[in-house]
């Protein structure tokens, strides 16, 4: 297929008087993992439901492999593996009955591929689904999306409910699928998850796309919180001249200072060597630290050319 796996242009979806998504424009290229980052309620799931043909756009256009997501959704689903954010399965079926039922709707399911997926994700097949844990239900949902070896995966919070080892295994699997030429649209609110696998990232804020970045650019923009405790008060202005360092809060007359740190860690450590530090907590970056850039001030959404690049 020569058309882009996903092409969205000026997409708006409203719910009566409530905001859905507004004027989204972006393109997902073949063979890439495109992370779609945003907090709950930002519009991630609405976007995915439009892509899957479950919602009709209020205006604008969404296409998958050149096919219109609303009028040609049946054809699109032949080439897409989908995992919803809120997985609902037929609870009175066993896992094997559920997969057999779904396979009956697909042609050319490779039995060897099915066995490989079941072994890799350690899916429980004999219990009724209503007796499965949340994690095992999620694994069953992942396998059903992969059974037909689709060209495009559209995944809405796919690691929800998985234990850390299985999260790692699934993200490794996604990288392998990308290397096989698959395209993956990964919606998440977990920054670390997206950073580990994505090639590019779209950031959605209150229904609007505010940035499309490479993962390298995303890492440069993120902020890691550092909490410092001093034996005596320290003037927060001691950090004012350090690029990439911001004072977020000052407590206990300067004995406790929280910083936001971007790239200039060596310069900061040299400065701290001259100060009476008695404790330091340097937390991993989270999604909130990325959104500080976009939520503390109004940000102009990217142009169509920037988002499509």
Highlighted features:
309 residues, alpha/beta, Rossmann fold, Alpha-Beta Plaits, 2 domains, six-stranded mixed β-sheet, 11 helices, 31% helix
Please, could you describe this protein's structure?
This protein is α/β, with parallel strands linked by helices. The protein folds into 2 domains: 6-220 and 298-308, 3-Layer(aba) Sandwich (Rossmann fold); 223-284, Alpha-Beta Plaits (2-Layer Sandwich), CATH 3.30.70.250. Helices cover 31% and strands 28% of the residues. The protein has helices spanning 44-51, 73-76, 95-103, 111-121, 134-146, 164-179, 191-197, 215-221, 265-272, 287-295, 304-308; strands spanning 6-15, 18-28, 33-37, 59-64, 67-68, 80-83, 152-156, 183-188, 200-205, 208-214, 224-230, 245-251, 256-261, 277-282. The strands form 3 sheets. It has a 6-stranded mixed β-sheet with strand order 6-7-8-3-9-10, sandwiched between helices. A 4-stranded antiparallel β-sheet has the order 2-1-4-5. Helix 6 (164-179) links the parallel strand 7 and strand 8 (183-188). The longest helix is centred in the middle third of the chain and has 16 residues, at 164-179. It is globular and about 70 Å long. The two termini are 19 Å apart. The model is unreliable at 297-309 (pLDDT under 50).
């Amino acid at each position: 297929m020569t058309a882009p796996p996903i092409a969205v242009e000026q997409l708006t979806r409203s719910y009566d008087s409530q905001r859905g998504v507004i004027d989204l424009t972006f393109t997902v290229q073949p063979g890439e993992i495109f992370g779609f980052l945003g907090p709950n309620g930002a519009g991630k799931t609405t976007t995915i439901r439009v892509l899957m043909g479950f919602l009709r756009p209020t205006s604008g256009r969404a296409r998958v492999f050149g096919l219109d997501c609303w009028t040609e959704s049946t054809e699109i689903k032949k080439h897409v593996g989908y995992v919803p954010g809120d997985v609902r399965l037929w609870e009175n079926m066993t896992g094997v009955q559920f997969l057999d039922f779904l396979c009956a709707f697909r042609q050319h399911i490779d039995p060897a591929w099915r066995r490989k997926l079941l072994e890799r994700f350690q899916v429980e097949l004999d219990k009724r689904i209503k007796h499965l844990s949340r994690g095992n239900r999620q694994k069953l949902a992942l396998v059903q999306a992969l059974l037909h070896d689709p060209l495009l995966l559209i995944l809405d919070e796919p690691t929800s409910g998985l234990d850390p080892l299985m999260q790692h295994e699934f993200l490794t699997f996604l990288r392998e699928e990308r290397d096989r030429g698959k395209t993956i649209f990964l919606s998440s609110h977990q920054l670390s998850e997206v950073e580990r696998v994505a090639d590019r990232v779209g950031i959605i804020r209150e229904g609007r796309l505010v940035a499309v970045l490479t993962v390298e650019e995303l890492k440069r923009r993120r902020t890691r919180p550092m909490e410092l405790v001093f034996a005596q008060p320290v003037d927060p202005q001691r950090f004012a001249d350090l690029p990439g360092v911001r004072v977020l809060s000052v407590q206990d007359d300067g004995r406790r200072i929280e910083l936001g740190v971007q790239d200039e860690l060596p310069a900061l450590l040299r400065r701290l060597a001259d100060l009476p530090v008695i404790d330091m907590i340097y937390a991993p970056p989270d999604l909130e630290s990325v959104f500080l850039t976009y939520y503390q001030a109004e940000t102009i959404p990217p142009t169509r050319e920037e988002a499509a690049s």
